[in-house]
Design a protein that fits this description.
alpha+beta, four-stranded antiparallel beta sheet, 18 strands
């Protein structure tokens, strides 16, 4: 008798595709001590060892379950706070057990999982399984000398897809962002949205009404997102230069994210400094959170379990969903990326 393998739902494919995609797990500026993260249910420790190497590893000590994030960082290892067992920062193998007189008797399978590391956009990024996409490269940032400032992460009890759609939606501005943007038109003009594989983008002039950005002059915005979890706006001011805000929601679980995000100014930018840009952009983020918290469902209804209707103002959102579906198809096809960076 042949047992058929059940066909995965689209939601299951979405989660599987995220396990094979890059997400941030810590800010570079916080690595003076070990940091913790949970990525799709996997508990991690992130630290910089005594030689300056950044490691992303399993947080649980395999001896008796100690939390390695509470341990001591050594030259090329991290030690468990419970019994001092040390694990290599390069491959996770146990390198020292203080209670053993003969270090040659370390259990050969004693190790912790070690994950790839990329340092980018002021953050540490990792991927849990064999990646099906490259680490993010943003076309409009190529050749720019950007100076980044990583913001304090924001907890949000919705999924990656819902978070990215909120970042890229323009029809909610007059209702959610009355304070940060001032009065803005309710009618959304026809959107010129482009998609190439996993990347979606559009250009749109800045209409800041009477908000904090109203006096900065003519500006064209490049909205971009890349499946599954990067969204950015690159502001190109005629008189000031370029600045950036970017969000990278990292899934604690399928319906709960920690939003890592930051701002960047082109070196020589003649507008507000990074701290002021971050202050203004944070106003926008914090206006979104109370509304997004009550969205139902908490993640995109990939399997049509909820009815939705769309209008032309949703064109960017719909193209993001198409890009995410392309990522899911890579899971089904068994596609992978051979290089980590």
């Amino acid at each position: 008798m042949t047992t058929s393998i059940p066909t995965p739902t689209k939601s299951e494919l979405a989660e599987a595709s995220m396990r094979r995609s890059w997400f941030p797990v810590a800010r570079l500026c916080d690595l003076d001590k070990p940091q913790t993260a949970t990525l799709l249910g996997v508990n991690l420790v992130i630290y910089r060892d005594g030689e300056g190497r950044i490691s992303v590893q399993s947080r649980r000590c395999p001896h008796r379950g100690g939390d390695l994030s509470m341990g001591e960082v050594h030259r090329n290892s991290i030690g468990c706070p419970y019994h001092g067992w040390e694990f290599s920062s390069t491959d996770g193998n146990c390198s020292r057990i203080p209670s053993l007189a003969d270090q040659g008797k370390i259990p050969p399978r004693a190790s912790i999982a070690t994950y790839p590391v990329v340092e980018r956009f002021g953050h540490v990024w990792t991927v849990l399984e064999d990646p099906i996409r490259d680490m993010y490269e943003i076309e409009e940032w190529q050749g720019l000398d950007l100076e980044w400032l990583a913001a304090e992460p924001i907890d949000s009890s919705v999924g990656v897809g819902v978070t990215i759609e909120n970042f890229r939606d323009v029809a909610h501005f007059p209702f959610v962002h009355k304070v940060s943007m001032g009065p803005t038109p309710e009618v959304v003009e026809p959107l010129n949205v482009n998609r190439d594989g996993l990347d979606v983008w559009m250009d749109r002039p800045l209409d800041a009404g009477t908000g904090d950005w109203a006096n900065d002059g003519i500006c064209m915005m490049r909205y971009r997102c890349s499946a599954p979890g990067l969204a950015s706006i690159t502001y190109h001011y005629e008189k000031l230069g370029r600045r950036v805000v970017a969000g990278f929601p990292s899934p604690i679980d399928y319906e709960h994210v920690k939003i890592f995000w930051g701002v960047a100014n082109e070196v020589g930018y003649r507008g507000a400094d990074l701290e002021e840009c971050l202050r203004v952009e944070e106003m926008v983020y914090l206006e979104d959170i109370p509304i997004v918290e009550f969205i139902e469902p908490r993640e995109i209804p990939w399997d049509s379990e909820f009815q939705e209707f769309s209008v032309p103002a949703d064109l960017f959102t719909l193209n993001y969903r198409r890009s995410f579906i392309e990522l899911m198809n890579r899971v089904e096809d068994g596609s992978h990326v051979n290089e980590f960076v």
